[in-house]
Write a structure and sequence with these properties.
Elements lengths: L24 E2 L4 H11 L3 E6 L3 E7 H9 L19 E2 L4 H11 L3 E6 L2 E7 H6 L15 E2 L10 H11 L3 E6 L2 E7 H10 L28 H11 L3 E6 L2 E7 H8 L1
Helix pairs in contact: 1-6, 2-5
């Protein structure tokens, strides 16, 4: 899928599609503070700054979940476990440059900086939006991940956390008797931790208590453009692919972005 074939100028500055004033954290912020900002904003990655907006790191959903499983607490400073080797875009980068960095790094969100200063952020959703409304004539089956990893309603939230960390998937379908009954994301887990005051005893609760249901879905025969409309229209990053009531695959914003490169 070539962007120029869709009438999109890949030499346009990435700042034309990015968020200029992103939500961010300070290196002195606690896990609790960072989780609250992620939950409120829906962002899966936060740039971390110090002083006069100098970009010094990033932190993701999975960074936080992994840190908590390693015994860190809600009061732990984010600087202890954040990623310091930041993959970022320069504010003069083109859409083509940013797209290549995103696909190569497999990062769903990239900070944008000028020198050392944070200037913005660009995500897979921003790239997906630029082809929103265009008919692509690409069936979902050509792009989707087949036989995706899934969990059951009775899976504990603790084991759900471990699955998200180990698989690097941001969302997991919830399947019972071979039929999909819900979906749970890393953000759902973080929101639950925030609401329960990071009470580790609550991690033994079943995933069914936090999963989203009913689930937006598509068929493998649907056009990719229809899947994009559902994702953008409902502010979600991925859709289960259902055939005859059974889980056949999953399609995500990452799949769309990798198709653009």
């Amino acid at each position: 899928m070539k962007l120029d074939w869709l009438g999109i100028d890949k030499e346009m500055k990435v700042t034309a599609i990015s968020i200029p004033s992103p939500v961010y954290g300070d290196e002195s912020d606690s896990v609790k503070t960072i989780v609250k900002r992620m939950v409120d904003s829906g962002h899966r990655l936060l740039p971390i700054i110090k002083g006069n907006s100098e970009l010094v790191g990033v932190v993701t959903y999975t960074d936080i979940l992994s840190a908590l499983l390693r015994g860190m607490t809600r009061n732990t400073q984010v600087s202890i476990f954040m990623t310091r080797d930041v993959i970022a875009c320069d504010h003069d980068d083109t859409i083509k440059d940013a797209l290549q960095k995103m696909v190569f790094s497999r990062r769903g969100t990239l900070p944008i900086r000028s020198g050392k200063i944070l200037r913005g952020i660009v995500s897979e959703r921003d790239f997906t939006k630029i082809i929103f409304g265009k008919h692509l004539s690409i069936p979902v089956s050509e792009v989707m991940t087949r036989k995706p990893f899934y969990i059951t309603p009775g899976t504990t939230i603790l084991n759900c956390m471990k699955s998200i960390i180990n698989t690097h998937y941001r969302r997991l379908p919830v399947v019972e008797n071979k039929e999909i009954v819900g979906i749970v994301t890393a953000l759902d887990v973080l929101n639950y931790l925030d609401e329960t005051g990071f009470n580790t005893l609550k991690l033994d609760d079943a995933t069914s208590s936090i999963m989203k249901a009913p689930v937006f879905s598509v068929s493998q025969h649907d056009d990719l453009s229809d899947a994009i409309k559902i994702m953008i229209g409902n502010h979600i990053g991925g859709l289960p692919v259902i055939e005859e009531g059974l889980l056949a695959g999953i399609i995500t914003e990452r799949d769309v972005v990798e198709l653009m490169e």
